[in-house]
Design a protein that fits this description.
alpha+beta; Nuclear Transport Factor 2, Chain: A; five-stranded mixed beta sheet
């Protein structure tokens, strides 16, 4: 994360306004009654195209930033967009988008992403919309891309289709149970009630299947380095997908744990995550990675 720590010092005061190609069939700001997901798609397209005018229309001026290395406010984000990201040719691809009330969670793959700590990184980004339908707040966690992995899957491949909207509440409760019982250690033997035998794993260090999790837990426990989840800050769910945002300790440091589960028939059948150490130095804002939840 060395490069990321210097983002604030690399920002300059000059803005470059670039036009956005609107010749495709994607929704635009002139589309009536845009949904939050459509606005998110436009927002990330504007990031890729350095389209400052669109960013300024979508985002509140007092945009609250929880990425610890980016100053708070819309102007600071625009400066990052038109200098550091522009200079590196940074691009983002939305993999999964989940909406829950005024929160939208996005599973992203970033390339040419040296400013974020590696050439390719995976993030979860969360955007909060205000009562006027504008993007007012942002949280994220970032992890460098790893491949090959222990399970043969990548950190972002797998199912993307949202189904079973009527099961959202039950699936959110299931995700909380997984965190509390298994990862907080309240009732670890309940793991077999929550995780399918053929569980697909996208954490690059853990093998597929229920057995893969059990083996990882046994190994980490044997070396006294098991993940310790302490607090669940937010649960965002839509149908068969649920994202939990937690804080805990690992490798002797405080970490942000973003866990995305895909549920089916009352069990988790697939899992993606992003783990980022919570920084304590060179902070560009004092909002905190979990503030505002």
């Amino acid at each position: 994360m060395t490069h990321l720590k210097h983002i604030a010092t690399l920002l300059v005061l000059t803005f470059f306004i670039m036009s956005c190609d609107k010749d495709d069939d994607s929704p635009t700001l002139s589309t009536p009654s845009l949904s939050q997901k459509e606005k998110v798609a436009i927002f990330f397209k504007a990031i890729n195209e350095r389209d400052v005018a669109t960013i300024q229309e979508l985002v509140t001026e007092d945009y609250i930033q929880h990425n610890p290395f980016i100053p708070t406010g819309r102007d600071a984000f625009v400066q990052l967009l038109t200098t550091v990201l522009e200079d590196n040719g940074t691009q983002v691809q939305n993999i999964r988008v989940i909406e829950d009330a005024n929160f939208v969670a996005i599973h992203n793959l970033w390339t040419n992403a040296a400013p974020f700590g590696a050439d390719t990184v995976v993030t979860f980004d969360i955007l909060r919309f205000d009562a006027n339908g504008k993007i007012a707040e942002h949280w994220d966690a970032i992890q460098p891309w790893e491949f090959p992995t222990a399970n043969g899957n990548t950190m972002t491949d797998g199912a993307t289709t949202i189904t079973n909207l009527d099961e959202t509440v039950a699936n959110k409760a299931l995700a909380v149970n997984i965190i509390q019982d298994v990862l907080m250690g309240q009732n670890p033997s309940n793991i077999t009630n929550y995780i399918a035998e053929d569980y697909l794993q996208h954490n690059p260090q853990i093998d597929n299947g229920l057995q893969g999790i059990q083996d990882a837990v046994a190994y980490l426990t044997s070396i006294n380095n098991m993940f310790q989840y302490n607090t669940i800050y937010k649960v965002i769910g839509e149908g068969n997908f649920v994202l939990t945002i937690s804080e805990g300790t690992w490798n002797g440091t405080s970490n942000a744990f973003y866990d995305l589960f895909r549920m089916e028939n009352g069990k988790a059948v697939e899992h993606w995550d992003v783990i980022q150490p919570v920084p304590t130095e060179n902070l560009a804002n004092d909002n905190g990675m979990f503030g505002g939840f």
